[in-house]
Amino acid sequence: MIMKRPHEAGDILQGTLDMLILRTLVMGPAHGHTITQAIERTSENVLEVEQGSLYPALHRLEDRGWVSSAWGVSENNRKAKFYRLTNQGRKELNAATGRWRKMTRAIGLILGESFD
Amino acid sequence: MSLQRFTDRTKKDQDFAEEIESHLAHEQDASMARGLSPQEARRQAHLRFGNPRTVREQEWRYRSFPWFEDLKRDVSFAFRALRKTPGFAVICVLVIAVGIGVNTAVFSVIDTVLLRPLTYPDPEALVQLMNTSPRGSFPGANIPKFNIWRQQPGIFQRVAAYDFGGAGLNLTGGDHPQQVEGVHVSADYFAMLGAPVIAGRTFTAAEDSPHGGHVTVLSYSLWKSRYAANPHIVGTTIPIDGQPYIVVGVIGRSFVTDTPADLWVPFQFDLNSQDMAHFFTVAARLKPGVTVAQAKAQLRLAADQYRRIYGVNSLPPDAGFSVLSLVQSKIGDIGPSLLVLLGAVGFVLLIACANVANLLLARATARKREFATRAALGAGRGQIIRQLLIESLVLSLSGGFLGLLLGFGGVRLLLRINPGNIPRIGEDGSAVALDLNILLFTLGISLLTGIAFGLIPAISASRPDLATALNENGAHSGVGVRSGKLRSVLVVSEMALSVVLVIGATLLIRTFLNLQSVDPGFATHKVISMAMSVSGDRFQKTAPVDQVIQDGTDRLRAIPGVVDIGVTNCLPMASGFGMVFDIVGRPKDNGPFTGGAAFYSISPGYFNAFNIPLIRGRLFTRQDDATAPSVVLVNQAMARQFWPKSDPLKDRMVIGPGAGPAFAEGPRNIIGIVGDTHDGGPNREPFPIMYIPLAQMPDLETALNSRVAPLWWIVRSQVDPRTLVTPITVALRDASGGLPVAHIRTMDEIEARNIARQRFNMLSLTIFGSAGLLMAAIGIFGVTSYSVQQRTQELGIRMALGAQASNLRNMVLRQGMMLSFIGVLIGCGGAFWLTHFLASFLFGVKPFDAVSFAATPLLLSVVALASIWTPAMRATRVDPMTALRIE
């Protein structure tokens, strides 16, 4: 299931991309380009989605039944594939968010204040 | 794992391409909105996205099973590679098919005979009751033994007696009296074997007791064929031996017995009987949880109990009772001979493997450049080995499939021609059926052989020296020393294995010829035998039976072409009866009787019908009847054993002392000595036989005889006896008041059946030996041809330097024959060790038979010489100029 992908610095942590995509789709169905932009903009351009890995991730999510897809017409009046969060995907997002919060809190506790 | 991932790969890829296109368009839109030119925007979009093809390929791999993809590619590549060399592919597949075919053939017999369980429910609990003694153990029982066995506490759930329908029964009534296989059984028989009752019921205990009435249970086939599957048959009566029998039940089709039964009738034993005659066998079903060992222990005690009740003399002190699993008792002694055959076909398969490995090696050498190129392009060693292994597996699986058809068809054909007296294979081998075991076996050895013959060439080919291989002229780049040596080793092993096979086959052929040349001691040509069942109330006394014999003999004599007529209660070379005897006035040293011998009851014409010579004294005449003094004849073996120094004709003997009321009679005068016959088969020395006239049997003995054995009519004729069958059967029917005859066979057939097993062994091993030899010949031919081809240049130079054609030819011959001689030598050594496994199958020839060990190497050398002659001659025709210009 895990794709072989060179792990580069600045890359989004493996597995978190799925969560971010699902979170983005809570706002409503979106196509790939919108999702990229939404993640980048919402993260104040800290996170950069490697576009080559966005689509494999979307397709993996679809294979797992967390999102569904359909061709439609975009805001630019172009043909685009829209992804929609499924109920299963919503549940997975909740679970993943919970796990993430727990983990960041734990890491935060260990790291404590900054050491300037 | 969601299977969605692997479905519709091509469509999804198309979809993805469009999606990427859409993404790039949106990206371009966004950039243009920031003021970039369309071209620049497009460029930026592409830059940001990366190479769409890479992403798509990544996705494509994600949607695939990697190993499956590789396999598919390798298989299709293998097919393409093989299609380019169809001759090579066909030869390989054929060689493998023969190698695997013979294995499938032998295994399918082994599967049927040794591995398949009995068809009865819970067959492991079924055992055969046995008599044991230091001289061997045998099944067989009399009423007292049956009675003791069934009373043993705690071990048996059910105990049942049954016979083999030896006497046959006559279905009378209607226009066509029919002799049928009527098997006598005790009441528990059907329940013990779990026989399915499809109508009515089986016998009750009351029906199976003396005076239990005339009742019968029909088999499915008889119910179907003679009574048109009449659903109301139960409760009706059918005439058997002129008596009305009530049909109480019908048994289902799935119930299979060794000797096919048409109907069953109850034994109706008197369990108080002291009758010592053994005329049936007993099987039992163990109680759940009881082991064979426990049953054996209990039966050892039963033997003592038997002696206490029926007298010390009823069972020799060293004899006892035991059990043997029923399936084992049916398999009998065939096991070792099948295992020898399995060993032989294993050799054939090894030879086939060596052969194909050899061909693959040659091919791999020719493809050296291909592998080097692939390695240079980055194929790993593992990939090349895998590719080659898959090629050999494609070959072996195709060969295996063909071999399955060949082997299975072949074994059915062989068994049809010659069933070989093998138990459990059904009529003409019909029980040898394709089942999962056979399929798995064939698949298994196909895979194994594919790996076995593929691995060596694959490994040696995957070690290419890139620079040399690529620089050299491909086809003529030298044979690596290593692969040349490897091929020689393979040829030597092929020769060695063939030597072993051929020596084995020669030994069995000589055994068979020896058996065939044994004079059985009685005429077999133009002699026919047939069985008349004299069961039923009419034939409970000696006089009416004798009347039929006299009347029938007279009528048969009137048929033109008939020479002599005899009647007997057992046929030579078919299993007969044995009986103990005392010689009047002779002290018994150790044991209750003087001795035991085979026991025939015959008509006066018997010896003439079989051309058995009278040595001394006189033969029986019609005057030796119930009113005349009792007489007996003995054969030479009996005279030799029991009267080594005295004259048997001066003695009198009592037959069957203490053998129960049926055999109660006074002493008989010994009136003559007749010639020996090989009754136990040609491979056994003649044993003692005593003959009495049928007309002088006590009435009770006749009654017993009528139950357990038919009357065998023996007719010797001037013409082919088969042409006289119709007048003979008509005459016998008239003489007997309508009795039919069955089991019509010439004595030649019976004799042939006696050595059928040896014939089967010989035929099989000859086929396997020939197959091995042929493959070895192909192998040595291939190696020599190849080496001549490889050395074209060298030969050309030699020739240019003045070598004579005969020198070159002899050089090639010498090298080829060297390999053969090494192989033959090793093979002879191996055979020396292996043939002792054959010892028990041989007759009149030693395992280290000089003829076989001398003739086989000679034969193989001739075959080897013939195989390398053509390539050797080719060596002399090398044209020096062409040879040198090839490069």
Short description:
The complex is a heterodimer of chains A (116) and B (887). With 116 residues, chain A is an alpha+beta fold.
Sequence-ordered SSE layout with sheet pairings:
The complex is a heterodimer of chains A (116) and B (887).
Chain A lengths: L15 H10 L4 E2 H11 L8 H13 L3 E7 L5 E7 L1 H25 L5
Antiparallel strand pairs in A: 1-3, 2-3
Chain B lengths: L8 H25 L4 H12 L2 H11 L3 H19 L1 H30 L10 E7 L5 E2 L3 H8 L5 E7 L6 E3 L6 E3 L1 E4 L3 H5 L3 E4 L14 E4 L1 H8 L9 E4 L2 E9 L11 E4 L14 E6 L5 H19 L9 E6 H6 L2 H33 L1 H9 L4 H37 L18 H26 L4 H6 L9 H37 L9 E6 L9 H16 L4 E7 L8 E7 L11 E8 L3 H5 L3 E4 L13 E5 H7 L9 E4 L12 E7 L14 E5 L5 H10 L2 E7 L7 H12 L4 E6 H8 L1 H35 L1 H9 L4 H30 L15 H27 L3 H6 L2
Parallel strand pairs in B: 6-11, 8-10, 17-22, 19-21
Antiparallel strand pairs in B: 1-2, 1-12, 1-13, 3-12, 4-5, 7-10, 8-11, 9-10, 14-23, 14-24, 15-23, 16-17, 16-20, 18-21, 19-22, 20-21
Report on the structure:
The complex is a heterodimer of chains A (116) and B (887). Chain A is an alpha+beta fold. Chain A has a single domain (16-109), classed as Winged helix-like DNA-binding domain superfamily/Winged helix DNA-binding domain (Arc Repressor Mutant, subunit A). Chain A contains four helices and three strands, in the order αβααββα. In chain A, strands 1-3-2 form a three-stranded antiparallel β-sheet. The longest helix of chain A is centred in the C-terminal third of the chain and has 25 residues, at 87-111. The radius of gyration of chain A is 16 Å and the shape is globular. In chain B, the strands form five sheets. In chain B, strands 6, 7, 8, 9, 10 and 11 form a six-stranded mixed β-sheet that branches. In chain B, strands 16-17-22-19-21-20 form a six-stranded mixed beta barrel. In chain B, strands 1, 2, 3, 12 and 13 form a five-stranded antiparallel β-sheet that branches. In chain B, β1 and β2 form a beta hairpin. In chain B, α6 (143-150) crosses α9 and α17 (542-557) runs antiparallel to α21. The relative contact order of chain B is 0.10. Mean pLDDT of chain B is 87; it is low at 474-479. At the A-B interface, α2, α3 and β3 of A face α1 and α3 of B.
